Amino acid sequence: MRDINEHTPGEDLIIKTAVRLMVPFAQLFGLYVIVHGHYSPGGGFQGGVILGAAFIMLALAFDVKTSQQYMTIRVNTVFNNLGAAIFVGVGALSAIFGGLFLDYSALDKLIPMGPVEWRSFGIFLVEVGVGFTVMSIMVLLYWNLSSGGAMDEGL
Amino acid sequence: MTPTLSIWPLIAILVSLLGALPIMLSARQPNLRESWTILIALVKLSIVASLLPGVLKGGSYVFTIAQVLPGVPIELRVDALGMIFALVASFLWLFTSIYSIGYMRALDEHAQTRYFASFAVAISATIGIAFSANLLTMYLFYEMLSLSTYPLVTHHQDAEARASGRKYLTYILGTSIGLALPAMIMTYAAAGTLDFTQGGILAGKASPELLALLLVLFLFGFAKAGLMPFHGWLPAAMVAPTPVSSFLHGVAVVKAGVFAIFRIIFHILGPETLQLAHLGSLITYIAAVTILVASLIALTQDSMKRRLAYSTIGQLAYMVLGAGMLSATGMLGGVMHLAMHAFGKITLFFCAGAIYVASKKKNISQMNGLGKRMPITYLAFFLGSLSIIGMPPLGGFISKWNMLIGAVEGEQLVLIVVLLVSSLLNAAYFFPIVYRGFFAPATDGEGDGIKEAPLFCLIPLSVTALVSLALFFFPDTLVQLARMALGTW
Amino acid sequence: MEAVISEIVAKYNYWIYVVLMMIGFYAMIGKRNLVKKLLGMNIFQTAIILFFVSIGVKKGGGIPIVDKYQALAGGVDAATVVNPLPHVLMLTAIVVGVSVTGVALAVLIRIHEEFGTLEEDEILEKLRQ
Amino acid sequence: MSTPNLHLFVLVVPLLSALAVNLWGRNNRQMIAPLVLGSLAFSVLGSIVVMGNVLRHGTISYTVGNWQPPFGIELIIDPLSAMMMVLISVVALLASFSSLKSAEQELPGREAFFFTLYLILIAGLHGLVLTGDAFNLYVLLEITSITSYGLIAMGRGRAALSSFNYIIMGTIGACFYLLGVGYIYILTGTLNMADIARILPTLNAPVATTTAIAFVLVGLWVKMAFFPLHAWLPNAYSHAPTGAGTMVAPLMTKVTVYLMIRVILNVYTPALVFTHDWVTNGVMWAAAIAIVCGSALALGQKDLRRMLTYIIIAEVGYMVGGVFLANSNGLTGAILHIVNDSLMTLCLFLVVAAIIYRQGSVSLDSLQGIFRRMPITMAAFTLGAFAMIGVPPTCGFFSKWYLILGGIDGGHWEFVIALVVSSLINVILFFRIIELAYFGSLADGEHHEHGSTERHEAPWWMLKPLVITAVLLIVVGFSTGPLINNVISLIIPAGF
After folding, report:
1. What is the pTM of this model?
2. What is the CATH number of the domain that holds C103?
């Protein structure tokens, strides 16, 4: 089996340029899906997966190193924990401000915007948190599984 | 007399349980450690004695430690039967501590701190058994006693001690968890309570078959009483140092088993209910078999301690026989034999230890002519054996006499024969030792270097011998306590 | 005979999910290769997801996406919309399935590093030495 | 922090600290210990306050996000779940002391990952105990399982393979549970436990209900390693890293037994579950076989930790049998045994962790004469052994008392005999080790002790929880009365 790292021009060029063109649009679409999640089809999980797919496409076409240039492991960990912290944090915050857990209308005391608006904005915050976490987990999963945990050249 | 609430029974138990700590801490200075043991023994004896007048007037002291199960609290209650056992145990513990100081020092045994500490825990468990108000508390202290005596039995920590320790545990823990625990819970299921009450709690609540099953489970469940076939652990436990076998397997552990069976017969199953179900004969036949077989085996044993062990099994069966007669005098004899045998047997064990300390001899065949060199030990041995056989000047006579009258009243001819034959057998295995000591010629110059045992050993064995003598002449307090234990019956 | 066939035809989704589940179950228990076991597990989970989603189906029901203002004005007629709740439940089940597969794959890589093979009997052989 | 939703903070604080450990723990390792112990200490205090509230004001029903049931997820905190919360947080705190030390020794550099999974597992367990919604229970069940798969897979050598087997069996169990929930959803149209309990008896669909009950129960039995379905547990718990074993062993199976009790009492109501007596008799016989075989298999083990895992399987048989006795004594015994058994298992696993920290292995022949080298650890082991055997002052005796009493009331003699036989086997099991440890260095018979006699005790950081747990065994034993009167007796429904 010939060494997979040996770059034969032509066959890779097409893939690389295609991926380079598609990644920005994929990320934009992913953001769109996350942002519109709380009142139309879409949402944190699906959007996160699409964003993650963008990075995985990079890792597939080039190699794990290049995709890590765009998102280092450190940033990945931060996104990972930040997302989950947002989800739990918003819920806990609304509990601290007198409401029930995850009852976003209680956040009205923090920034007065009216309980109904706060409900929808609360869900949006949670969707963003979930999106971050899912994106970073998907990418982390791919990185680890493809390179057996060594995070070097990958498939 | 309404029971008076008092904390004293709990303090009596805790004084030696907590006493184990200073003993352990003062491991470095043996003299300080020994003085701690004797101080604790004195304090314990004085507390138990202070409770005596109250009990003699018919009162009882109650103290609840914890309300654990509905209807069955962990509770202490000092009544007449408990008082007899506690008095005997604490009195003899004082002398055993003195004796074991002399014994351990003479043979400079290793790990004496662990020995004295677990001894203190064992005696607190014994007093706990005596003062428990219901079957659960008694079971709790019974288990504590078995577990705290394990390090004592396996004191020498050699292969033989390991094997006998394993045998000791399988018999004792195996029967107590395997037989006594289910029986206790079945009694609780049938009666709703486990408190010791005069005349028993199962009157009319249990069918005869259940009663018989419970009786058998309890008799063999409390294997410390050494009824055949669950007696194997007692000879095996003789591998322990002599003070252990003298106090525990002469007095505390085995008496705890018989005391438990007394509690079951008098205060749980109840003499009348047993008599209605004709179960008295079941107890007496088991006891009779044990007496005869144990006495016969004792004849054949050459090692002094094993012979005493089998004689103990026989005597324990005496007490169960007395209790099994279910007649007033018979049961009275059984209860009194508990005390009489304690003093007699502990004297014999002390003498065996003294002989071993002085002459390093374990087997009877080697003990020719020692009487001339160790007159006090052998005199005490003679008095002790007389008490066990039941000859008049010694206390043992009173209890055996009562049992004989009980058997006659109950027209149980078989029991009368068993009592007489076994007394003869007792004489048959004790007198050769005494004869060999005083009259047989010392075997060619072997015995010249031997002289009396150290003072620490002599005082206890002579005191216990004299006490068993005194019990013949002033038995009234003991008899009164025994009568009150059996209630107005 | 017709009763049996109509019975099967009426509840064909249950039959399909049971068949799928048994295939997955067989693969998990029967197969020697660990990756095949993992695939069996995935089939097993997908069968249950199919079962759940097939519960919500209604004859003539459309996609449960409704125009916001039309819903505010006229309200939603349940008959015309498929029951969305099983779908939502299965979204979580899919997430759970993904994470279990992720962990299992990571564990398989560790096993491969440790024993150099993914055949169960070879591994057991190596362990026995 | 308003106390009405304090119970959720008991869950959220470990979760948030897990994220913090994952974020900062990687490069500065000294951050991990304060975070872990701080969050668990908070959850212990929180759960005790919640227990106080529940006992004063009765059951709290709490809707997450203010969506009223049956749409929103409803959390129910009744005395049983409050007691379980206290138990989980206390056991987790005590186990984490020892896990910190073990992880430091066995997983250098990967403590951050270890304690992230550890804390998420504890948060998941708290969630399991709180939830009042059937599907939410499935999600939390999976959270706890996935984290324990991860924790076990972090061990060395065979750990990965045993974790894979655990994954396969665990997923089968979880999917069976999910199927059961699916059938219930078809029947009742709701997922809220209280609603299901109200609607199920009114339907006359006996076959479907029985299948739903069967699927859920079999699913939970696989998760709790009830005897015929126990194959995964011994390997999983004995090859796991010591820190993971100390935490997972006392909690996972006991919480699953709690779930079974919750499902039987609050979802299917005992009337539905115990209708056919061939079901109860069948389960009783299975429980009796589980007890005897669990103990017997433990006899054959040459390693202390594997022996304890088989004893866990036998203890699961105690609890399942207690529940299916279908009388109040049996159920009281089962619930009491959940508390006692998790404390006993914690005590024994802490001893194993301490010995492994010092000696690296707990195989029986490496325990020779260990009494002299590690006296305090072995004293705690002896106390734990007495509790396992069921010696009175310790807590093990009282739950065994109730179970045997329930067995006698229910007339299930095979259960009573199995309990007594397993106690006897426990005597042999534990005294074999005490004898080995006590006599060990002198096995070859000469008088005075020799071999490494200087004290080689476990570090103080591991001894603290061990001593506390050993004392707790006796304290819980004595406080059986109050525990039952104001906690367990409130849970048992009237008609039992």
Report:
1. 0.91
2. 1.10.287.3510
